[in-house]
Structure formats: C-alpha cells, structure tokens
Amino acid sequence: INNKLISIEDYVNKYCPNLTNSTFYPTIWLLGGHLQTFWAAFVGDNSKDRVKYEREILTAADGGTISIDWTPRLNELFSDESPILIVSHGLTGGSHETYVHDLLYEALFHEVPAHKRPDLENFENHPLTAKFRCVVVNFRGCANTKLTSPLLYCGAYTDDLRLVVKHIHAKFPKAKLCGVGFSLGANIMTKYVGEEGVNCLFSAFVSVANPYDLISGALAMHRTWIGRNIYSAKMNANLKRVLYTHKQILESNKYDIDAIAKSKTITDFDAALTSIAFDYLNVTDYYRKASSNAYINHIRVPTLLLTAFDDPVAHFETIPWYEVNHNGYVVLGVTKGGGHIGWFSGGNMFLSYLGPLIGYVKKEMNMKGAPQRWFTKSVVEFVNGIVNGVDESQFNKEESKTQDSKVKNPYTSQKLEFLPSPMSSTSSRIKRHLVDNDQLSHKKLKKSDNEENKKNLMDLEKEIISSNDFDLDNKENNNKKNLKLV
C-alpha cells in the first residue's frame, strides 16, 4: 500500500472482509459436512449450462489434448491488461461444475451490488463491469475433452497446467494471472505453484478444499463406512466412467483389466491404473509424490488455503499446519463447517427440494431457492485485492510474528481457532474426534470385503508412519516466522 511492505495477514484483514469480518452461517437444513457435501453433489446435477464458454484446444508434447474454456468470450471488449482468473476443477470435473459457475459469476460481477446482479443464466446480456477474464482448465478426458494420448491425468501431473499457464501468458503478456484450484485440481495447482517457486507466473493463488496429503487422506476416508462406501466408491465410479469413455487407454497390456473392473474404491483404481500409467512403484509411491503439502514450503506468491474442518473428502488430518506456519507467502483459512466445496448458506427449503420435482421455474431453483456458496466472495476478494490494489512484491515475508498468532495445530494444541461460525455444537463434536498423527499406527482399519483395498490401505498406513521424505524441519523453513489467519 503506497509501496510500503505489508504482511499477508494485514493484507487479508484489509482486503478480505468476507474472511475476517463476516460469519459463515450454514444453511439450517444443511448442518454438518456430509449434508453440505451431498447438497454440492445434488446441485451439480441441476445446472449444467448456466455459463457460456468459448473453448480453445491445446496440444501437449505427447499429443495429449487439454481444453480451456473462456468466459466471457474472447471477442468481448476487454483490455489486454485485464487480469485473468485460471481455474482448475476437481476429480473428473470440468467447466460445467456448479462450484466453478458460482466462482466465475462472483468474479464477473464482484463489484456489482447483489440486488443489481443479473441472473446467472442471462448474465451475458448484462453490461460487463468485471475486471477479470476467466478461463477453466479441463484436464485430459474431462468435460468432453477428447483423449488423444494414452494417458488421462493424475494428482501429481502438473505439465498440462504448466502448458496452459504459459500459453495464456504468451497470449496476454501484460495481464496478471491468478489461479484458483478445487479439490484434486487444488492439489495439482498447489504442487505447480510450489514447483515454479519464484518463477511462478501467478500473482496470487487460492486453494479450495485441497486434500494436501493423499496418504493421510486415504487412510482417514477409509476408516469410516461412509468414507469407503459412499465417497471413495463414488470417486472410483466416476473415474471408471471417464476411463470407459476412452477405452483406448486399456489397449495397453500393462494394466490388469480385471483389477480395474473389480475396483471398489479410489485407492483400488489408483493401484490398478493410475500408479501404473504414470510409472510409480505402487499406489503409496503415487500418493506420497503427488501430495501437495510437500511443495507449500516453496510457494513464493501470495496464497490462500481455504478448507472446512468437517470436509469428509479432504480430511482435517491433512491440513498443512506446520508448512503454513513456515511460509510467509501463505495464509490458511479454516471454517468449522462447509463440507467438501460446499459452504452453503441461506436458501428456501421448499423451492430447493420441491422445485425440481414439480418442474418449477429453473431460474427459481438456480438463483432464488437454492442456498448460495459463501466461499466465492472470499476467493475473489483475495485475488482482486492483489490484481487491483496491492502488488505481490509489496508483501513482507520476513516480518516477525508472535507465537500466539500462528495457526494452532489441533494435534499439538487443545485450542484451535476458527473463522466465525455459530456451529459450536458441531465444533465440540469434531474436537472430540481429533487424532494425533503419532497414534495412526494404532488405528485398526475396518474390515473390507475387498482384500486388495485392505492391502493398499495397510501399505499406506505403513508409509505415513515410516516416511521421512517430507523434510519439514529444514533450515530454510525454520528461519521463517510468520503470522497466519485461521
């Protein structure tokens, strides 16, 4: 501000009031992470075409195809210096996802008062006041992207994203680029930003509902019946659906077709196909090397990590408390509630539930009856302040912070600070189930009908106990003293 150095915490306090000065009130009939997550999946099936895109096709060095969807269309009257928001979707998702639509809508009309905003279905007829171009990266085989190579994509593969970012930068060299990733897309983008380090082309980055540590996440998910039989099974089904849409992948004789067909969980699928396709030793090796928490130490652009403590997919055990506290470029926001890419607030219960059943006006379902996502405004505030207010070079990464102001890790502290939320009862219930990392070795995996899955999970459990590849105590990290927002 006026060329003075500013800490990332001070930046958030000044430019992100939705994070610091507002309260996330969950929709009253969507209390708890499971209901928030289920609703996110339900809404995802009811509004496929609310945003109109212009598609551009890119070809990777190996012949693979990546599609990127622009909105507004490229012929709109935007300056070549207009900032660009680059979005990466979750597992098997794409530009059609409602969480993507909701974010783009907020980015396009962030400065328009809520009561003056157009309906999302008709926003193209509204005079554009947005300062952002928006572009969604559809990974190989996703969102009707043709598969022209033997590979799909995985949580560790960042080359396609790197290709897209370089292409956009070459197309608009004067524009500031910002990244927002969701779920597995957040893991990929976090890994990319860390890999690029000081050479990253982003001016700002936001990670939403990132699983961070895929080994810990897999263990946590498969410890519960609903994790194994609902979430993991659904992700496995989605992966197989995409795979069978592109059956040419299976023409290689290096895959066990029967193992893929019999897979019941995402870990089964990754063991039978993903880890083999990308030449990892096994699924444990893949998860360990794909985990983005190992790259947070190397991030050198202003970064917001946003997660919900009750997220049943990106489990709280994976939250990178230590890494965040040792990098002055990164701030962590944790809410008590919100589920997986949910954070739904408000909404009319009658219109939301009965509207689709009785053929009610689609506009009512999409805009008035359904709960609205809280996180989109927080995300746009964070990137908007940097591209239109504070230059990233103004951040004071070395400013000393007090110990009390750091993020509190629930594994080492009885007290955990959250963003404001009225869900005190939910908070208490969650806290009673905190598990110390050192006690993971004593956790018994529940019996599974799938013996291969049980073996995979036991391998993962051994890995998280014995692995010392994540050098969290290196000298560079310990020399950093930073203040984090929770």
Please, could you describe this protein's structure?
By secondary structure, this protein is an alpha/beta fold. It has helices at residues 8-15, 17-20, 33-43, 98-108, 159-171, 184-196, 214-222, 225-245, 257-262, 266-277, 283-290, 321-325, 349-354, 362-369, 375-388, 424-431, 451-466, 475-478; strands at 54-59, 65-71, 84-88, 133-138, 177-182, 202-208, 303-308, 330-335, 344-345, 372-373. Strand 3, helix 4 and strand 4 form a beta-alpha-beta unit. It is globular. GO terms for molecular function: acetylesterase activity; monoacylglycerol lipase activity. Belongs to the AB hydrolase superfamily. AB hydrolase 4 family. Residues 438-457 are annotated as: Disordered. Residues 83-314 form the AB hydrolase-1 domain.
Q: How is the topology of this model organized?
A:
Blueprint: H1 8-15, H2 17-20, H3 33-43, E1 54-59, E2 65-71, E3 84-88, H4 98-108, E4 133-138, H5 159-171, E5 177-182, H6 184-196, E6 202-208, H7 214-222, H8 225-245, H9 257-262, H10 266-277, H11 283-290, E7 303-308, H12 321-325, E8 330-335, E9 344-345, H13 349-354, H14 362-369, E10 372-373, H15 375-388, H16 424-431, H17 451-466, H18 475-478
Helix pairs in contact: 4-15, 7-17, 8-10, 10-11
Defining traits:
486 residues; alpha/beta; Rossmann fold; 8-stranded mixed sheet; two-stranded antiparallel sheet; 10 strands; 36% helix; globular
CATH architecture: 3-Layer(aba) Sandwich
What's the CATH class label?
Alpha Beta
The total beta strand count reads 10
Largest sheet: 8 strands, mixed
Strand order of the largest sheet: 1-2-4-3-5-6-7-8
Computed Rg:
22 Å
The fourth-level CATH homologous superfamily is Alpha/Beta hydrolase fold, catalytic domain
| Spans where pLDDT lies below 50 across 5 or more residues | 354-367, 399-405, 408-449, 464-486
Category by helix and strand content: alpha/beta
Net shape: globular
Family: Belongs to the AB hydrolase superfamily. AB hydrolase 4 family.
Protein name: AB hydrolase-1 domain-containing protein
Domain AB hydrolase-1: 83-314
GO molecular function, one term: monoacylglycerol lipase activity
